[in-house]
Amino acid sequence: MTEGKKRVRRTPEQRLADLEKKQAEILERQKAAIAKIEAEKKRLMQTPSARKDRMEQDKRFVRAAQVLAPEWDARHFIAALEEALLEEHGKARRGRRPKVH
Question: In this structure, what is the dihedral angle of CA atoms 33, 34, 40, 43, given to the nearest 10 degrees?
Fold first, then answer.
């Protein structure tokens, strides 16, 4: 009769090392996939039609901003947006308890 192989019990350190190795491999694959997506997005944003649309939107925004407040510059608009967002959403609450309505 032949004896079967005995099961070799791995230590927790070995299992932990395997899990960390697997995690690193997964992270590498994710980074590669994200880099590929970012490259595709960048390529699409560089197309002449997309660049033309973006420039037109920028010009339209600048014209509208000049009509609304001709004496304001970018800092004024940023401050106004920040103030409006704070009024709408409020300041962050400190602590862990959720806001009660």
Answer: -140
**In Å, what is the CA distance from 1 to each residue of 4, 5?**
10, 13
pLDDT tens, residue by residue, 43-73:
888 888 888 998 999 999 989 989 988 998 8
Does residue 82 lie within any of the structural domains? yes
Domain enclosing residue 73, as ranges? 14-89
Number of domains observed in the structure of the chain: 1
Q: What is the pTM of this model?
A: 0.43
- Please state, in angstroms and as integers, the Cα–Cα distance from residue 79 to each residue in 72, 76, 83, 91, following that order: 11, 5, 6, 15
